[in-house]
Amino acid sequence: MWRAVLALIVKELLAVLKDPKSRMVLIVPPLIQLIVFGYAATFDLNRVPIAIYDQDHSEASRDLVAQFLGSRIFERVATLQSARRITPLIDARKVDLVLSIDRRFTRDLLTHQPAPVQLIVDGRDSNTALIILGYANSIITDFSLDWMQAHGERPVPAVLDVRARYNPTLSSQWFIVPGIVAVLTQVVTLLVVGLSVARERETGTFDQLLVTPYRQGEILLGKGLPGLLIGGIEASVIILAAVLWFGVPLRGALFPLYLGLLLFVASVIGIGLMISSIAVTQQQALLGAFLFMVPSIMLSGFATPIANMPPLIQDLTWLNPMRHFLIVVRGVFLEGAASGTFLPEYAAMAGIAGTSLFAAGWLFRRRVY
Prior knowledge:
The chain is α/β, with parallel strands linked by helices. The chain is built from 15 helices and four strands. Helix 7 packs antiparallel against helix 14 (321-335), helix 11 packs antiparallel against helix 14 (321-335) and helix 11 packs parallel to helix 15 (343-368).
């Protein structure tokens, strides 16, 4: 049996690797997506354009402005002399934040009264606006503490001392890049497996395959194992790039990571074989693959937290293998977690893999007969 399956695996690998279009799908898009996701998909803000409206023109107000401009977050693009320019600048998207310092700023500081500082932020992108306000509030808090210390005032009773575990610098690359392992592995594996049977139907070789002594299970095995091999190699390359190129720490062991990868790729292979068994042409298979991929990525927690989704959608995410593998890959990379931590994720992916492979076999037999 295994010699026959091995021959089918070799045939499938040769069909993929000898086809220039298939080689392009395996090599070029993953590299482009790795670069785009690794560098462009980030929650960090740099060089946020701001305008300064300083009505006080004092040493204290200049120190506050200097702290804003001294950070790598903000970049001054305008200095205002009148409040009338605030609205046009924000409407034209020339600035994301306006720092407005009241003319009584220094006087109120010296008389121990609350010193007015106004932050006017462009709220059309609410997520970015909240991040900008968080950075600005942190700078103003640091300024206030420095002022109190310099002028011999009693510090406030409670002072925030923020420390981030697992990601001390709060770099979004450490969160995004491990997720790319799951996204690109799914994309490549799903395309390779999803197009396999449909490609043979189009070329007419599928009917020839059916008259051979191969059983349906052996054909499915021969179609699925090349996807497992290609997906594993693709994931290994991305893991190496994450560690050596992007500098994401791999704190855990490779065994829990690759055990999760094996179950995840098996789940994707089952889904890909289901799509391939239903589709008659490669165009249909490609459309089916993308119909699955887009909601799978959206509902995986790759970019948006699952906890923020409606309860019904949160329940549906349990059927998504990428949701479980993202927990594994990020846990191994950032937390250094062991295999025992991921037993629920392993069980869920094994269940999805078994169900999808069984369904693929049933659909395959139904299409044959």
